[in-house]
Design goal:
CATH superfamily of the largest domain: HIT-like
Largest sheet: 12 strands, antiparallel
Strand content: 15-25%
Shape: globular
CATH class of the largest domain: Alpha Beta
Number of strands: 17
Structural class: alpha+beta
Order of helices and strands: EEEEEEEEHEEHHEEEHEEEEHH
Number of helices: 6
CATH topology of the largest domain: HIT family, subunit A
Distance between the termini: 50 Å
Length: 359
């Protein structure tokens, strides 16, 4: 099947964003996004093959869901630079996940997915179980093996924002109930591939914390109003109508959120100015972390948007959870946090904001 080419419905400051759709040998989708139309030829060779098979089970005493995906235990683990599966492919070498010699930003179906469009029906059980239908995608920020959201540059971050929006729309259109773009960064978080990248999960159910948040917003909770009411000592930076801050109810030491002063339900609601501001604050937050901790900060980034069909009251946030409480001190999520969900936070939010504002 030949590749298809299109442009996204949204442009960036008048510049078109191009999308190339390529189908890999095992049926997985690969999308190349960029300001330039990708016309490079596919590198010859044999594609890597997907491993699939999973189901979701709901905990009868907690109400939350777990994905059981045994095939993921054999996923790629810290390969050598020569075997980097997220690098561009080179002629005469084994193919990587991206069988092209160059790209701006790439998205492809995860080779070891927790959720997939062809998930099998679970065996009958007394538990509440559902097929792990959905999507797991990898989003590669750059062809370069080094870098971060702080160093990619504003153009690439803006391209990333528009790519997230496109993937939200595609996953919702495919029937996903909730979509979560995220990034795991650093060995302490469990990263197995250090090439700059993130992931996107499309769930068949709305996870418990996001379902709770949706109900809170629909019941009248106004995060934007609350952020405006906080003292300036919780604020870190502002850009394009968005603000980064240490939330007064943070659970992690040095936790930071980014949200819009005029709320949107998801990044698809941004105008160009807001999207520019959001892209800037993504890089700014990582830059501040790295400067403060004087190292590449292990951090989890998650984008919290409205579940499918529940736009309106929901207020979008990007949330950063560092796994450090000091330069060489890891914040472990041990017995109390794991068993109760009640976190012990080692620093006050206003101290977080003060320290990060200074960077």
């Amino acid at each position: 099947m030949s590749d298809t080419f299109s442009t996204l419905s949204r442009s960036i400051d008048g510049r078109a964003v191009y999308r190339r759709h390529h189908i890999k040998g095992d049926g997985r989708d690969l999308f190349l996004y960029g300001f330039e139309k990708s016309v490079t030829d596919r590198v010859p060779g044999e594609d890597l093959e997907m491993n699939a098979g999973a189901e979701l089970r709901q905990h009868p005493l907690r109400g939350d869901w777990s994905i059981y995906a045994a095939g993921r235990n054999n996923r790629t683990f810290k390969p050598s630079a020569a075997a980097n599966p997220l690098a561009p492919s080179q002629p005469g070498q084994p193919l990587t996940e991206i069988p092209f010699q160059d790209f701006e930003l790439a998205v492809f179906g995860n080779r070891f997915p927790s959720l997939s469009k062809n998930a099998r029906a679970p065996e009958p059980s007394n538990l509440n179980t559902v097929a792990a239908e959905g999507a797991c995608e990898v989003i590669v920020y750059s062809p370069k093996a080094e870098g971060s959201l702080a160093t990619l540059g504003q153009d690439r971050r803006r391209l990333l924002v528009e790519t997230w929006i496109d993937r939200y729309q595609a996953m919702f259109g495919a029937g996903c109930a909730y979509v979560l773009p995220f990034e795991n960064r650093g060995d302490e978080v469990g990263v197995t591939l250090h090439h700059p990248h993130g992931q996107i999960y499309g769930f068949p159910v709305v996870p418990a914390p996001q379902a709770y948040a949706a109900k809170a917003f629909e019941a009248g909770y106004d995060l934007a109003s609350e952020v405006r009411s906080w003292d300036a000592n919780l604020k870190i930076a502002e850009a394009g109508g968005l603000v980064s801050y240490a939330p007064a109810f943070a659970r992690f030491p040095y936790e930071v959120w980014v949200s819009a002063e005029v709320p949107v339900s998801g990044p698809w609601g941004f105008d160009n100015t807001q999207a520019d501001g959001f892209a800037h604050l993504l890089g700014d937050t990582i830059r501040r972390y790295d400067a403060f901790f004087e190292r590449e900060t292990p951090v989890m980034l998650t984008l919290h948007a409205a579940p499918h069909g529940r736009d309106g009251a929901f207020q979008f946030t990007a949330q950063f959870y560092p796994l450090l409480r000091g330069k060489d001190r890891i914040k472990y999520l041990a017995s109390v946090e794991q068993s109760t969900g009640i976190f012990t936070v080692d620093i006050m939010p206003d101290q977080t904001a003060e320290k990060l504002r200074a960077q």
